[in-house]
Please model this.
Amino acid sequence: MSSSPATSRGWDKPADLEKDPATIPDPATTPVPEGLRKEIEAHMALYPDTRSAALPALAAAQRVHGWCSPEAIEQAACVMGVTPAELDAVVTFYDMLETEPVGTTSVYVCTNISCSLRGADALYAAMREAAGEDAAFNVRAFECLGACDIAPMASVDGVYVGPLEIEDVPRLLEDVRAGREVLPDKQLVRRACADTGARTDASAAGDASLGGDVGMGAGA
Amino acid sequence: MTERLLFDRIDEPGLATLPVYERRGGYGSLRKALAMTPEEVLKELEASNLRGRGGAGFQMGKKVSFLPHGSIEKYLVCNADESEPGTFKDRELMQKNPHMLLEGLIVASFAAGATRSFIYIRGEYAQQADVLDTALREAREAGYVGEDILGSGHSLSLVLHRGAGAYICGEETGLLDSLEGKRGNPRLKPPFPANQGLYQGPTLINNVETLSTVPSIIRLGGDEYAKLGTEQSTGTKLVSISGHVRRPGNYEIELGIPSREIIYGLAGGPDEGREVKCWFPGGSSSPVLTAADLDVPYDFESMAKAGSMLGSGAIIVVDDSTPILDVALKTAKFYRHESCGKCTPCREGTNWTVHMLERIDRGEATPMDLEIMASVQEHIIGHCLCVLGDAMAMPIGSMIAKFRDEFEAHIESRRLEAQAPAGAAA
Model:
């Protein structure tokens, strides 16, 4: 979605029709890291039709290679016994599979309706600017991540944080750079349910003033 | 006060673990169900009149009864690809009470005679998938999942499948293609999944909240459950509320309460001095309602009567500080991005709607463009394999119909701004 022909460094370009289509990679001549092979084979064993393992296989290959590079796809195709083209078709359909090299830590900023009503577009711009060209980050605007209760929010390698202020941006990036837990005080999993009537503590029931803003809840 | 079935003591420490869930009576409904016949369990589900919580609102019991009988291999797929903008209820359920989902899923598989099951969870929900992974391991070790569950003779395999980011995979046939390792393109229906679904086999597909409700139905009995809510919208429902409200979050309500009670009572309404301009009652795919509709009861039939839909139960509130054009543009851009491209009316219709809305913003539009845009929406609805295109056309169409004056004023003011020579005051 973000790639344009002028800036594309990946492979998602029109096919070269002069070339013969690639065949199923030969296991004898395609080196596959042992860990990756085992992981893909374990996924294939879970389904009646091994092709169902395409998404977990590509996700695993992306974790090893950093993106779904031609090499990553060839390795996954080799283990699965399919042509690389079959997996190319899958990769280009899904937002979380990358068709060009990206920064190591993905920061998805939700810019869908609920988050944008609460300032997500400015947050995304600030995140892009602060991350700059740092290869440590893959900052992307993302469609609804399913956390409108903490809008505006972001997902840092799968860890949901919010509601975010512009001032949180440098702290978030610094936490990633230092290899620390990202914004522990803003993590979604530590948040109590907004529905006060559902709380364990009976005294909280009906106390609307607590609202959804209690911060560190029972999950902490 | 609303009885909490899904959110009962939801923040109790350790609820996501098997010992705490069992201490609270967890898997008691499974034991009760396994002591009955599958037909008796199905009768309870039908008596409950539970309607699917994913968006379409189809009776769950009826869906189960559509599956063919006999020894043919059947599949059960849990749709955990919660992606409808504004919806985040399944996320909290899976995060905090994963065993309730597993228990409901196992009971449903017993009623349907399904022996293989899958949970398709959106890739972005990595933290919730990890919680489910752990819960699944516990359930397997305790003998709730696997061969001959608790000596009942019923066997079930369960695989957690992580998606990779595509809204369309929440559409049931798109989900099936994705689960088969392909692009998530929706299929032509019929045949419906109940006859030809996953791997061409009979398949039951249910949403997370729907399955999570099943243990309560078995515990209470279908008739008792049906006493909650309204006649055609039984039970309790999780509502995700977001946007311009003071206390966004998930709330469990009894279906049929006035919408105002949710938006103002539970969520606190918009900030001081602001008014509700419009609201999506059931995710961004539902036609918008206005402040005049705040007293409509929140249930399937009342929302349909008001010209909208309950959908996934996600209320997005927009206050009077936001131009309607911004809301329309955000909505249309989302569906353009997520259209899989298989059907022309959706692929082209979402794209041209975005272009035309942008033209308004650039000051190049005329009021006639509103007619064209409205007619584009009409040509999308009902003309595609799935309802993704409709999901843009319905809210956009409703915005043009309800906020026509504002659109026209916007067109005019932008046009004047664009025509004004640089530097001159318009």
User: Anything to note?
Assistant: Chain B touches chain A through 72 residues (CB under 8 Å).
